[in-house]
Amino acid sequence: MEPPFPDALGVEQAPAPHPLLEPVLGFLGVWRGRGRGGYPTLDGDFAYAQEVRFSHDGRPFLRYEARAWLLDGDGAPLRPAARESGWWRVQPGGRVEALVTQPTGITEILVGQAGEGAVDLATHTVALTPTAKEVTATRRRYTLAPDGDSDTFTFVHELAAVGQPLQHHLSATLRRAAGQSTPPTSSWNSSVQ
Ligand code: HEM
């Protein structure tokens, strides 16, 4: 049975977005792209692809879901990587309170600001399961492309973990997916930019 109050992936879909969502409306939808990452504790850098989805149900928060997979040197999928899901609670003035959970045993609460085509979030609290890697802080910046290109955003992620200070872990460029999302398959892995 379809839920009676479905999520909307765009401003043109019902329900109408809550007015408080105005500073984050540009991020609604399904996004796909590629990025690169690394960390001093890792052997080398890695390439990855990612799908990110932001939706809403008419209330003043976004539902957020992201899944990534590693790519080999030819851009072919290697194995599943990070997944996370959560909520961006948008407050008056574009303040954002985010809750993000990962299957690696890490849950973050981040706070920050949305406005002028960007969202900048930094850790407020991290909760770890008993076997999770030690993560003390992250910073995440989502920036819609300037010059009116509403179909591209860049993402930069800094990480303080396993005894290392806050520093670059990931950066990516994602583009708005045409139409509704489908589960990632090798057919579009090879064509994602
Ligand atoms: C697109 C998203 C991400 C990708 C593709 C990614 C990729 C990776 C890779 C490839 C590794 C090396 C270990 C392994 O092969 O699994 C790693 C390690 C790690 N990542 Fe990420 N990651 C992502 C997001 C995150 C996020 C959001 C966090 C924390 C909030 C995080 C925290 C860590 C930590 C703590 C390690 C372990 C470092 C170590 O033990 O030396 N990652 N990541």
From TrEMBL:
Key words, A-Z: Heme, Iron, Isomerase, Metal-binding
Coiled coil ranges: none
Cofactor(s) of this protein: heme b
SUPFAM superfamilies: Lipocalins
Iron-sulfur recorded as keyword: no
Cofactor binding, note field: Binds 1 heme b group per subunit, that coordinates a highly solvent-exposed Fe(III) atom.
EC number: 5.99.-.-
Ranges where the THAP4-like heme-binding domain occurs: 21-176
Chain segments annotated as transmembrane: none
Binding positions (heme b): T41, K133, H169
Pfam families from the UniProt entry: THAP4_heme-bd
Catalytic activity: peroxynitrite = nitrate
Chain span(s) of sequence motif GXWXGXG: 29-35
Entry similarity comment: Belongs to the nitrobindin family.
HAMAP family recorded: nitrobindin
Name of the protein this chain belongs to: Peroxynitrite isomerase
Record organism: Streptomyces sviceus (strain ATCC 29083 / DSM 924 / JCM 4929 / NBRC 13980 / NCIMB 11184 / NRRL 5439 / UC 5370)
